């Protein structure tokens, strides 16, 4: 399994805007090798908010196919030249090979 992670820091009160961007129906769900997409918001009392997006793929090759796909490129092309929203403080990302996953043990005797 292969995971793409993106961390976005936004000004207070704007995490929902990032969540909304990823929660609607999109084209990524139809891509071969796509496993799932998880969006998490760090619990904070005050100040900037942190949103983590994890996209899991069956393999790095499937992720590469998505990155090179016309659908993905067209989506980025459509936003080219647009200013980054003012509420975004920073973004960073990473790519990870999943080495193992633990699942809930079967509780049946």
Descriptors for this entry?
33% strand; Alpha-Beta Plaits; 4 strands; single chain; 3 helices; alpha+beta; 109 residues; 4-stranded antiparallel beta sheet
Q: How does the major sheet shape up?
A: 4 strands, antiparallel
Lateral strand order in the biggest sheet? 2-3-1-4
Q: What Rg, in angstroms, do the CA atoms define?
A: 16 Å
CATH topology: Alpha-Beta Plaits
Distance N to C terminus? 30 Å
Number of DSSP E strands: 4
Low-confidence stretches: none
How many domains comprise the coordinates?
A: 1
Quickly count the helices. 3
Layout of secondary structure:
Elements: E1 2-10, H1 15-23, E2 34-41, E3 49-57, H2 60-68, H3 70-79, E4 88-97
Antiparallel strand pairs: 1-3, 1-4, 2-3
If you had to describe this structure to a student in words, what would you say it looks like?
The chain is of the alpha+beta class and 109 residues long. The protein has a single domain (2-97), classed as Alpha-Beta Plaits (2-Layer Sandwich), CATH 3.30.70. It is built from three helices and four strands. The protein has helices at 15-23, 60-68, 70-79, and strands spanning 2-10, 34-41, 49-57, 88-97. The chain has a four-stranded antiparallel beta sheet with strand order 2-3-1-4. Strand 2 (34-41) and strand 3 (49-57) form a beta hairpin. The longest helix has 10 residues, at 70-79. The protein is globular. The model has no long low-confidence stretch (mean pLDDT 92).
């Amino acid at each position: 399994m292969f995971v793409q992670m993106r961390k976005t820091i936004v000004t207070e009160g704007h995490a929902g805007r990032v969540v909304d961007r990823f929660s609607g129906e999109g084209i990524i769900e139809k891509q071969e090798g796509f496993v799932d997409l998880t969006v998490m918001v760090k619990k904070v009392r005050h100040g900037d908010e942190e949103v983590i997006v994890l996209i899991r793929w069956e393999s790095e090759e499937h992720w590469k196919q998505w990155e090179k796909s016309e659908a993905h490129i067209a989506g980025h092309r459509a936003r080219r030249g647009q200013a980054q929203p003012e509420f975004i403080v920073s973004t960073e990302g990473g790519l990870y090979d999943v080495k193992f996953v633990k699942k809930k043990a079967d509780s049946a005797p």
